[in-house]
Write a structure and sequence with these properties.
The protein is an alpha/beta fold. It has 23 helices and 12 strands. Strands 1, 2, 3, 6, 7, 8, 9, 10, 11 and 12 form a 10-stranded mixed beta sheet that branches. Strands 4-5 form a two-stranded antiparallel ribbon.
Length: 528
C-alpha cells in the first residue's frame, strides 16, 4: 500500500456529539489521498464506537484505543500517557507516515479544500511548515472571529530576521502558531525534529504552543495561506476552556517555558527587538493572569488555592513586568481576591498570605492614605518571603513622613538586589527601623509607658500612647506588640489577625512576638 499524501492525527475524549462531523470533514476533502488516526483517549461515551463504525466503512480511518484519559502523579496531570504510563501522544508509524502531517481536534472541522490548497502551497514552495487561517466557531455553528497568518513565504533562514523584526508580522505569526492544528508539516521535517519538539514542559506538562515554537526555531522554509480553512470550535466544555482553570498549577511553568522558547526562537533569527521583547513580557503576564482569574471560579479561597495564585505571581519572567505595572496589576487583583475571601466566608487565616493582606492594605490606603497602620502592612507585605516579585512596591510613598528619608534608599536597594531579596530585604528594613527608633526622641520612653499602662489595664491610656508612638516610630517593635494585644482586647479580631500576620513576617527571630502572633493566629492556623 502506498503512502498517503497527508496523515491526520486526532485525539478524542467524550466527543460523541461532534467527532463524526470532524472525521467526515477530513474524508470529504477535495484531495482524497488522506488518512486519519484517531486516538480514543479513554472515552466513557460512544466516541470509540462512532470512530469504529466510520473506520469499518472507510479504510482511511484508523482507530487507536487508549484505556485511560488522564494519568495523575504527585506533580499533577500528565496528558496522553499509555497504559504503561509512558508519554505517547501520537501513534506514529514512521514507515507508513504520509508525505505531510496535519492535526485536527475532535470538535473542530476543515473546509473541503484544506488539503488541496495547503498541499499546493507546500509543494510549490518546498515548505517545511505551511499554515493557514481559521474561523472561531461558537459551538461549531456561528463564526465569532477570524485569525489569519501574515502573508509570508520564507525560503532561507536568513529571510526570517528581517521579516520578524517587523512587530506586526511577528505578532501575527506568533498568534497563528499557538496551536498545532491548521498546519501542514513536511514528513521528513516533522520526524527529524519530533524528539526535540514534543517533550513535556518540566517533564510533566504538555503545551502545544511550546511544541510549535520548537518546530519554528528549526524551520527554514515557511509558507502562509492567508485564508481561513480551519474551523475551531469555541465552547464552554472544550479542553481549551477547561485548561484555563485555577487548578492548572502548570500555568506558571508553562508561562516561563513559553517566554523561554519564544525568546530563543527570536534570538536564533536575530529578531529580538525591544517591541517583540515587550510583547513577550505582556504575553507572559496575560498567560499567568488566566490562572489568577480562575480563582473566581473556585468554590472557596482555600489556602491551597492561594498557593496557586502566589506561585503564578512569583513567575520569574513576570518580575520586571510586575515592577513596572504593580499598581495596575494590584487593582486587577483586588476584586479577584475579594471574591475569593468572601467565598471563604472571610476565614481569618487567609491573612497569613500576603495577597490577602495586600488587599486589606489597599482598602486602608483608599479610606485613609495617612493611616498609621500602613507602615507595618506595607513593610510586612514587601518583606514576606512568599512575595518574590515584591508586589505592592508602588505603595512605598504611603509610608509617611517618618520614612521619607529612606524611601529612595529602599528603592535603590530593591532594584540593585531584585534577584536576592526576601530575608535580606527584611533584615535591611529592621536595621532602618532600629536606626529611626534611635533617632526618634522619646520613643523608648513611650514604649515603657505603654507597657505600664497594659500592666495596670489602663487600656484607654495605652491607646493614646500607642497613637503617639506610631507617629514617632510607625514600626517600633513595642508599639506593634501592644497594638496587636489592644486590638484583640477590644474585639477588633480582624485587625489583630492582620497585624499579627504582618508581625510574624517582620519579627521572625523575636520569640515573644512570635508567641503573641501564635496566640492570635492559633485558632485560625488550626483550620489550615
Amino acid at each position: 500500500m502506498g503512502r498517503a499524501k497527508v496523515t491526520f492525527f486526532m485525539i478524542a475524549y467524550n466527543e460523541e456529539k461532534l467527532i463524526r462531523r470532524a472525521i467526515q470533514s477530513v474524508l470529504d476533502q477535495t484531495e482524497p489521498d488522506i488518512e486519519i488516526y484517531v486516538r480514543n483517549n479513554g472515552s466513557t461515551d460512544r466516541t470509540g464506537a462512532i470512530v469504529r463504525e466510520i473506520a469499518e466503512g472507510d479504510g482511511r480511518v484508523h482507530l487507536v484505543e487508549n484505556k485511560i484519559n488522564w494519568r495523575k502523579d504527585e506533580a499533577g496531570e500528565i496528558p496522553f500517557t499509555n497504559e504503561k504510563g509512558a508519554f505517547d501522544i501520537w501513534p506514529i508509524n514512521r514507515e507508513t507516515l504520509g508525505d505531510y502531517v496535519a492535526f485536527l481536534d475532535a470538535d473542530d472541522s476543515l473546509q473541503p479544500t484544506f488539503v488541496e490548497e495547503m498541499l499546493h502551497t507546500a509543494e510549490r514552495s518546498h515548505a517545511e511548515i505551511t499554515v493557514c487561517g481559521n474561523f472561531f466557531m461558537q459551538d461549531g455553528k456561528t463564526s465569532v472571529g477570524v485569525r489569519l497568518p501574515p502573508s509570508l513565504c520564507l525560503r532561507e533562514k536568513e529571510d526570517w530576521g528581517p521579516a520578524l523584526r517587523n512587530f506586526d508580522t511577528f505578532a501575527q505569526l506568533y498568534n497563528s502558531f499557538r496551536t498545532y492544528w491548521g498546519k501542514l508539516f513536511q514528513r521528513e521535517f516533522f520526524l527529524r525534529h519530533y524528539d526535540e519538539a514534543w517533550p513535556l514542559v518540566a517533564g510533566h506538562y504538555f503545551f502545544d504552543t511550546v511544541v510549535m515554537l520548537r518546530y519554528l526555531k528549526r524551520c527554514k522554509r515557511l509558507s502562509c495561506v492567508t485564508k481561513p480553512m480551519y474551523l475551531f470550535t469555541v465552547s464552554s466544555g472544550s479542553t481549551y476552556s477547561n485548561f484555563l482553570s485555577i487548578y492548572s498549577v502548570a500555568k506558571s511553568l508553562q508561562a516561563e517555558a513559553l517566554y523561554a522558547e519564544t525568546r530563543s526562537w527570536l534570538e536564533s533569527v536575530d529578531a529580538l527587538t525591544q517591541a517583540n521583547h515587550q510583547f513577550l513580557f505582556q504575553l507572559n503576564w496575560a498567560f499567568c493572569w488566566e490562572t489568577i482569574e480562575g480563582l473566581q471560579r473556585a468554590t472557596e479561597a482555600a489556602p491551597e488555592n492561594l498557593d496557586r495564585v502566589i506561585t503564578v505571581l512569583n513567575n520569574r519572567v513576570a518580575s520586571s513586568y510586575l515592577a513596572q505595572n504593580s499598581q495596575e496589576i494590584c487593582k486587577q487583583l483586588e476584586p479577584v481576591l475579594q471574591a475569593a475571601f468572601t467565598k471563604s466566608r472571610q476565614r481569618m487565616e487567609l491573612y497569613l498570605r500576603y495577597p490577602i493582606r495586600l488587599m486589606y492594605a489597599r482598602k486602608v490606603a483608599n479610606a485613609c492614605p495617612d493611616s498609621d497602620l500602613l507602615p507595618i502592612l506595607i513593610v510586612g507585605i514587601l518583606s514576606d518571603v512568599e512575595n518574590e516579585n515584591l508586589l505592592g512596591f508602588d505603595m512605598l510613598p504611603l509610608l509617611g513622613k517618618a520614612f521619607s528619608g529612606i524611601q529612595k534608599s529602599i528603592q535603590i536597594k530593591v532594584y540593585m538586589d531584585w534577584t536576592n531579596r526576601h530575608n535580606s530585604l527584611r533584615n535591611w528594613w529592621m536595621e532602618q527601623i532600629q536606626r529611626l527608633d534611635g533617632e526618634s526622641s522619646g520613643a523608648d520612653v513611650l514604649a515603657q509607658q505603654i507597657r505600664e499602662a497594659f500592666q495596670k489595664e489602663q487600656y484607654e491610656q495605652a491607646s493614646e500612647l500607642l497613637s503617639e508612638l506610631s507617629k514617632k516610630s510607625p514600626l517600633h517593635r513595642e508599639g506593634i506588640y501592644y497594638r496587636i494585644q489592644l486590638a484583640e482586647l477590644i474585639g477588633e479580631h480582624e485587625l489583630a489577625v492582620v497585624l499579627a500576620a504582618s508581625a510574624r513576617v517582620l519579627f521572625g527571630q523575636d520569640v515573644e512576638m512570635q508567641q503573641l502572633c501564635w496566640f492570635i493566629l492559633g485558632p485560625e492556623m488550626q483550620n489550615i
